[in-house]
C-alpha cells in the first residue's frame, strides 16, 4: 500500500536531504575560502556540519564532485551566465558584469572563495582548471565583442583595441575584489568598474548617452561617472531628454510611486545627485540627508512632503519635524 503524500508545509525525508545538502555546500564554501581546495577534506566538512563522513559521501561521492557543486550553486545564485551575456547589447553586458560585483559584495566569503579558486585553478591539474579557463575565455570574448560593437557604432575611440579593453576590465574586476577584501569600506568595486567603462565611451556623442541611459547600465554609479567625466548632471540629462521621470523609468530607483511633478521639482533643483539615487534604489526611500537639503533650499511645499510620506518614501515623523521647521522659518 503506498504511503500517503506529505501535506503541504510538512517536512519529509526529501526536505531534510535538501537541507543537509545545502549545509554541506555552505560548510565547503567556508572551508575553501579558508584553506583552498587542496586543504579541504570531506571528513573536515562532515565534522563542521556535524554529520558522518558517509553522510557527506551520500550527497557528493568525491571531493571533486563537491567542489563542482559549490561552483555551480554559486554561479547559479549570482547569475554568472556567460552564455546569456553573448546575446545582450553592449551596455547590458556591462550591467550584467558589474551586477556580479553587487551580488558578491553581499557575501564576502564567496568573494574569498572565488579569489582562492581563481588562483588555485590556474594549475592545469586542478579539477576546476577547465571550468575557470572556459569562464575566463568566455568573459574575455563577451567583453571584447561588446567593446567591438561600441567601436563599430562610433561610441568609443577608433584607435582603442577592444581586446585590450576587455583584458583590462577583467583584470580590474579580479584585482578590485582582492583589494575589497582588505578594505571593504574604502573600495567601491562597482563604482570603479563603471568609471573604467564610462571613461572609454565618447560622451560627446549623443548616441552614446542615449545608449547608456536606455539600458540597465543607467545606474547611479554610471550617472556619477558621466557627471565626473563629461560634467552632465541629472538635471542636464533630464533637460536633454536622456532620462524621464515616468513611473516606469523611476521604478529601478525605487521612486515609481512619487508623483512626476514632485520628482521634476527635486531633479530641477540641482540638489538630487547620484548618491541620493543609489540610496533610493537600495532602500526604496529618500534619505533624511536629502530631505534636509530639500527643506533648507525650500524646494517643496508642506503638502508635497506629506505626499512623499503617503507613498512611503519618507517617514511620516520626519515630515512632521520638517513641517515644524518650515513653519518656524521667517518669511
Automatic annotation (TrEMBL):
GO MF: DNA binding
Keywords noted in UniProt: DNA-binding, Transcription, Transcription regulation
Pfam families registered for this protein in UniProt: TetR_N (PF00440)
Superkingdom of the organism of origin: Bacteria
Domain HTH tetR-type residue range list: 18-78
DNA-binding region ranges: 41-60
The protein's name: TetR/AcrR family transcriptional regulator
Native source organism of the sequence: Varibaculum cambriense
Amino acid at each position: 500500500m503506498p504511503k500517503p503524500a506529505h501535506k503541504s508545509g510538512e517536512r519529509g525525508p526529501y526536505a531534510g536531504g535538501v537541507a543537509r545538502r545545502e549545509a554541506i555546500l555552505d560548510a565547503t564554501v567556508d572551508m575553501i575560502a579558508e584553506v583552498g581546495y587542496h586543504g579541504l577534506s570531506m571528513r573536515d566538512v562532515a565534522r563542521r556540519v556535524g554529520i558522518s563522513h558517509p553522510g557527506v559521501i551520500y550527497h557528493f561521492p568525491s571531493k571533486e564532485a563537491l567542489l563542482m557543486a559549490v561552483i555551480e550553486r554559486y554561479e547559479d545564485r549570482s547569475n554568472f551566465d556567460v552564455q546569456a551575456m553573448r546575446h545582450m547589447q553592449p551596455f547590458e553586458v556591462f550591467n550584467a558584469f558589474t551586477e556580479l560585483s553587487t551580488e558578491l559584495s553581499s557575501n564576502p566569503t564567496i568573494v574569498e572563495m572565488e579569489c582562492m579558486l581563481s588562483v588555485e585553478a590556474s594549475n592545469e591539474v586542478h579539477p576546476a582548471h577547465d571550468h575557470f579557463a572556459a569562464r575566463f575565455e568566455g568573459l574575455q570574448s563577451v567583453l571584447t565583442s561588446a567593446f567591438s560593437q561600441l567601436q563599430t557604432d562610433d561610441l568609443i575611440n577608433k584607435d582603442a583595441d577592444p581586446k585590450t579593453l576587455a583584458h583590462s576590465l577583467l583584470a580590474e574586476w579580479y584585482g578590485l575584489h582582492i583589494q575589497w577584501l582588505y578594505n571593504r569600506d574604502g573600495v567601491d568595486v562597482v563604482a570603479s568598474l563603471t568609471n573604467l567603462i564610462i571613461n572609454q565611451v565618447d560622451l560627446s556623442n549623443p548616441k552614446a548617452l542615449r545608449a547608456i541611459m536606455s539600458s540597465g547600465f543607467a545606474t547611479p554609479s554610471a550617472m556619477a561617472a558621466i557627471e565626473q567625466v563629461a560634467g552632465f548632471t541629472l538635471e542636464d540629462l533630464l533637460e536633454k531628454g536622456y532620462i524621464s521621470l515616468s513611473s516606469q523609468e523611476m521604478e529601478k530607483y525605487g521612486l515609481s510611486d512619487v508623483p512626476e511633478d514632485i520628482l521634476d521639482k527635486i531633479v530641477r533643483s540641482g540638489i538630487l545627485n547620484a548618491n541620493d539615487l543609489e540610496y533610493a534604489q537600495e532602500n526604496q526611500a529618500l534619505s533624511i540627508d536629502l530631505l534636509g537639503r530639500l527643506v533648507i533650499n525650500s524646494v517643496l511645499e508642506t503638502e508635497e512632503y506629506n505626499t512623499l510620506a503617503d507613498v512611503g518614501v519618507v517617514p511620516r515623523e520626519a515630515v512632521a519635524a520638517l513641517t515644524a521647521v518650515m513653519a518656524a522659518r521667517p518669511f
